[in-house]
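Hey, can you fold this?
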Amino acid sequence: MEPRIQYAQTEDGVSIAYWTLGEGMPLVEMPVPPWGHIQLEWQIPEWRRWYELLAEKRKLVRYDGRGSGLSERNVSDFSLDTLMLDLEAVVDRLSMERFALFGTIHSGPAAIAYAARHPERVSHLVLWCTYARMSDYTAPAQAQGLFALMDKDWELFTETVAHARLGWSEGEPARRFAAYMRESVTPEAAQAMFAVIDEFDVAALLPQVKSPVLVLHRRQLSFPEVDIARGLVSAIPDARLALLEGTPLVPYLGDTEAAVQAIDEFLGEGEEADTKAELPEGMAVILFADIVESTALTEQLGDTAFRAKARELDASLRGIIGECAGTPVEGKVLGDGVLAVFTSARQAIECALRCKGASEPVGLQLHLGIHAGDVIREGNNVYGGAVNIAARIAGASAPGEVLVSDTVRSLARTSAGVSFEDRGEHELKGVSEPQRLFVVREGDA
């Protein structure tokens, strides 16, 4: 099924088209300026297969940059900063506080710049056949010859670029790509974008990238050359290089399985560390969220209005739970409480903080409580004392406060990037022993 196309708006008022595919931790693949048309990409079989493979283990996010595809085309500013505004509009619209970022070819410099400026948001950075300075990319004579065609014969330029960069033996795929290029952007916009891209230089930012970085490159490419990829890896503190065989510049042709496997292994390392390092075997981390004063709000707003707000928030929270690798328990609805199970205390705390932020635009507040312990699983539901304690901890929290048990604090103390304020021991209804509780504080770790 074709992904549903939605829109986000940038800070400077530009409408950006995007879609999402799959579930789990998000991977955002940036468009390659000046090209982009997320609807046509899905109609190209090889390209669609590439997206489906990437989305098997995570949520894939794809969007059209300003001036191209289904995004707003009546724009004139294509600077590096505005490319980052496009990215930020989409991830903010999806309430993604942290995500892996994928920059390919001409979007690589913008991905590098964003990762350097926002290390708190980019968990991993994947770079495909890209560069830090456009002058490195255009240095070969073949590159200069291709670009010289652009303002002389638009159709010849697109056909030549498609065959030269995808492979001269790729007959039908190259013809489809040439048609895609012509459909995705006007000649005038392409020329304006390339005039800006020609000035891209983020070499000074490479040492400032703190995220783990995977640099993927095709060994037989004429340009950008392999030495450019090696230069990226040598300048970025936590970077590694994966060389793949073949000549296609685009990742969806050639040995795509090897490319996807390298990406899966790279992203999976961080996910495995997050989920396995903290939690003793046989335990689960339980997050319970409940709307503050739901009964009073129902009387104040009326049942229909309150339920509309509650449903909106419920959908948002369940999306956040999935992005944080949690499992929402079916059968629980907001008003009765949203219950989610995690395999990591860090994930549960991150999720709770994001849920708190998501409630504010709806005009509601949440009680949020987290506990860890044994649970009984029956179908899509969970039971047990740990679930009851999580609900009681949520009930003891102040509006908008994330309250956790001592067990959770111990599990997450070194990995969650937060601090914990001791609230002392509490007698919880239905719990035989007092529970020592802690308030989560952001930014003080």
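Oh, and this one too while you're at it.
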Amino acid sequence: MSAQSTIRALMQPVSDGVRAYFAPVNRSTETPTAFDAAAAGWFNLANPPAPWIDAGWVDNFARTAQTKVEALRIGPEAAVNRQLRSNRGAAVELDFREWGKLQMALACGAQHMNVLGEAGTPPQEIAAVPLQAGSTAQQLMLGAAAAGFAVGDMVAVDVDYQSQSGYVGTGIAGAYIPSPPPITYQADYIRRITFNVGRVVAVANQSLQLDAPLLGGVPASTASVQKVAAFLDREGGNFFQEWSALFVLPETSAGRIYFYYPRLQGAGSPREDAVKLADAWRATTLHAAFEAIACQDAIDGETIYCSRVYVPPALAAVY
């Protein structure tokens, strides 16, 4: 094989799948999480830089360009004078292989909830425990109340509902409360919808150690901790999930490809698919559909919906 053929072979990307990463959008200011394309070659897929969250491998990844290109015709012969773009937009569909709070929230597209734990006979909701000073995003100081938790427990960490309106949830919007509220919300409502959840891996020194830092960051000093038994989503509702998204085709050979969506909103209803593993075994996947929301590119002020980035390997031809 000639040296030229070897170089051109490096221009044919090959990948073994698609990995998905999501980061919060500031819903109040409509500000997405930026993706630094200049650092794309150093984006650690196994340990993505904050605030990007690894949502795992996805199947049936499909991008759809909704933008139409139309011709502007003038004169008696209706000659093409120029082209223009109309009905701009973009969409994405995929199947999450993994089930977790983030994947379920993205797939349902609407409000996602934590099912708070119960105990006793008859079962009653386990009361929230106030945080104490010195808590971090991964270590929750609870004093003597820490003894009421065990390794393996899931917990939600957030403030009480006290007549707040607008987007609520520490760090990441989990719901929107209109003003005036349509009902009287319980004090634990924000812990029901918060993304500040974690798994307890150690109970020591009157504190809980979590498996990873809380997605919403360090909880407020007025936050409390409650046990979580399960995750729940529903068909319907008025809330739309919105996240920045990054889909990556890792470089099995010939470079890495990124698809960056500054703002994606859920555009589908809860749906599951089955993937055959062997004989009668089936893996259940979460189907998700998204609509891209317009965003202004800070580079030149253009209205965009997504961008494509290619990081070629060393020694590959440029064109």
